[in-house]
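Section 3.1 - Work completed
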Amino acid sequence: MIQTSKTLTFEEYLTYDDGTDNRYELVDGELVMVPLPTADHSDVIDLLSKTFSLEIEKLGLNWIVKRDVGTYVGIHPETGKERSRTPDLCVITQEQWNEVKANKKAAAVLKTPSLLIVEVVSPGDKRTDYKEKESEYKKAGVREYWIIDLRVSKVTVLSLVNGDYQKAEFTNNQLIISGIFPELSLSAQKILSV
């Protein structure tokens, strides 16, 4: 990720436009450019988006799957500065999306925790997805956080239990266990071999 020297408040971040198509996360008040995904990265997100959408429809839930929606993760305790991330994929309620849509001029950023967030680990960005975002999503109250690591062929599912994440790792033909989608029939191999 490329960090800029531009410092913003969360409210300024919501309306920031540098005239490019670049995507940014807000980390301790600093804009951090999010790199474009690789083809494999994009294919994983496409697969999961379709899979989650079918599960939502099958279960008759009032949820939706979104890409390129920011997630406000609050004030970072060590710095006192605000953070907002742009997950690869998130599952949210229709009510959450209606709140985002109400402010047509601001960036699409949720101010309440997503039900599920997926991040595909980018080359050279392992620490961010495994440590920083895990901590931030936990503090924000994200119920389930998936880390897809194509380099080591592993899917990690972190489930929020009593304020802490319980970790389960899946490889090969193991079926993913999800508290958000309890009837999901999806193997780690299917995700990792797209």
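Second construct:
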Amino acid sequence: MAPDWTLVAAGLALGYLLGAIPFGLILTRVAGLGDVRAIGSGNIGATNVLRTGRKGLAAATLLGDALKGTAAVLIAAHFGGQEAALAAGLGAFLGHLFPVWLGFKGGKGVATFIGVLLGLFPLGVLVFAAVWLGLAFLLRYSSASALAASAATPVALWAFGQGRLAVLFCVLALLLWWKHAPNIRRLAAGTEGRIGQKG
């Protein structure tokens, strides 16, 4: 049966609008800390929010960036079915990476990747977390751990018999890797900061 392309388009649009909510920017401004893009890496994600010294704000940013992806796919699935949910997941990820309100300059997508995964196939989050935690413990590089976990996700989804999800998360992982190009260059040069490293 062919998908209802109107519902698919609606799911994509819904996902994009939710994904484009810049929680890091909103929360830091509400807290009176100014524009988070003016510090550190200039990113709007939780890692850069943490550079304000406010761990609670960073945690709230991480949660918000994840749950907007979860909300997008669950709402789309309820009203439009699986095809709309898949489109919403893609839309939420694209919205986070390329928010129209911020000149298409958004975050790197790790939290939203996890949130979309949680909404579509919760068991996949355990795979992501296991890979991330294992490599973070061994290597002490958050970025490398996230990159490896994102690459492992579509493989795990395929192994679980979730072929369409595997294709979607392959696309999301490629975008995530592209957004992490500066981190990859620093990893190759040996200049990437380690977890817990100061300065």
